[in-house]
Each structure stands twice: as C-alpha cells, then as structure tokens.
Fold Alpha/beta hydrolase.
Amino acid sequence: MRASYRVNEDAPVLTLQMRVIAIVSEWLARPAEKVGVERAREALAKAAGSPAFIVGKVARLAQIRDDVISGVKVRRYVPHDAEPGVIVFFHGGGFVVGNYETHARPVSALAAATKREVIAVDYRLAPEHPYPAAVDDCVAVTSALSGRVVVAGDSAGGALATVVARRLGEKVAAQVLIYPVTDNVDELPSFETFARGHFLSRDTVRFYRQCYAPDVQRRHEPDCSPLRAGSLKGSAPAYVLLAECDVVHDEGLAYARKLERDGVAVKLVEVPGVLHGFFNMQGLPVATRATREMAAWIVSAFETNRRGQLSGA
C-alpha cells in the first residue's frame, strides 16, 4: 500500500487558474488577522457557496441530516445504496473558522464517490474554545461509533484526524490527511516560500495558532502538534494529499515521512500547481479528480478490513 506519486509532473509552480483564484481572493477577502474572527467566519461561509463553477454543488445523496453524537453536533451525509463503513470528517479552518456547512460540497462529494456515509463533525472552535476542545470533540464522536471507521480531514481537520487516529488506535481503519497542519511550533521552509499571495498566508497561520493555542508551551504537545508525537508504529494506513503551493506543505510532507519511517503504509499524493484549500473547489477538475482518487483508496481500505468490523452507525 505504500506508494507516492505526483498527479502532473510537468505542472507549473502555480497554474494560471490557481493564480487567478489567489489574486481574486486576496483582493476580495481581507485576512482573518486583519478583520477579526467573526468577519473571517462570515467571509468563509459566503465563499463556500459561490461561485458554483469553482466550489461546485452539494452532491445529491439519499439523506443529509443533522444529529448529535456525544453532545457534539454532526451532519450525516448518506449516499444512495450506501455500503457498510463510515468516514468521520473533520473540517479545516485553522481551528477558528469553518463548520460542516462550509465543507458541504467536498464532504458530500466524498460520500457520493465512496458510497459510504460521511459524518462531518462540528467541533468547537477557538478562540472561544481553545485547544484541546476540538480534539476532545473529535475523539468523543469517533469513539462513540460502533466498529472501525476511516477518519479524514483537511488542514486543521487533517491535524485532528491524525490525533484521533493515534489516540484511538485499532478503532481507526485508515486515515485521510488533506494538506494537514502538523506543527504549531516551528515554521518549515514552505512558510517562507509561500508566505504571501497563495491563498493562505503565513500571517494568517500565525494568527490561527495564537487563537487555538494561546499557551505557547502546550503547542509542543503531540495532540496540538502531531509532528512532535513519539513513535507512530501501528498507526492506521494513511493517504496524504498535499497542495504544492501551500504554506503548510512541508509539515504535511514531514508527517507523511514520519509515518513511513515508523513503518506505517502511506500513499502520498502531491498535486503540483495548486493552492491550500483546493479540495473545497469541487467545481474544478483538479479537485474532482483528486476526490475520485482519494475515494478509490478509501474504498480499498474498507475492503481490506474484515466484513462486519467497520462501523455502520
């Protein structure tokens, strides 16, 4: 299962399409560290729904309904002819912005492509609820489900997925990490390379870190900075999807390499020429293709587990 590849070796550093998106987003949306948390949340909620040719549409499923698990709000995405197995999804947004509504398009697309129910977790956000509130919510929801599950998440949600996978061990059959944030202490080289003009900036990440973990010493804890965990031996197989032109690219890559060094099966996919957040752009072929390939890996992961062990909760 261990493998790595690039989707398009000949892609430019930043595709023209992504360059336009970066320029427009910088022009239209002021960064969170400038406008504050509430306005940043409002801006993301607005951007998540338009324009459709970029973000796509919510996939048609058998059922989309809200629920509560272990006191935490969740949204269930149930596809037609759903097969056994559940994916638990943790949204991105720097632990500060976003919810299951902002990620309805990629999550519904994942449910449709895998033919599995996806449970999106509306974990508590910082700064109102700093670390480890989000971790506690995600662990609580996942541990309450019957059988084994696949965990997935993008950006901050990818960090939460790594923590849940490590904390719950055999409970997690596979982990899907989409440009995960794995180090809230150091700044690896991609922080400088893509500091500005690439959708997510270095200053915004610094702002999110301060909101999420104001106690600097706690940022060294592995539940806050997964890259600082001890041995990951025995962790669930991992699918790691990276955006090449991304301020947090290098920490995602470092985590994939750490998993491999510790003997974990890893499939590493780096998409050249794209920005952080491209998974949410389900109207673009690059995102839909990445989702299909990810879904195929997830289906394979489900199929390698013994029948009846995966959750149907």
User: Anything to note?
Assistant: Residues 1-12, 308-313 have pLDDT under 50 and may be disordered. DSSP finds eleven helices and nine strands in the chain. The first strand starts at residue 3 and ends at 6.
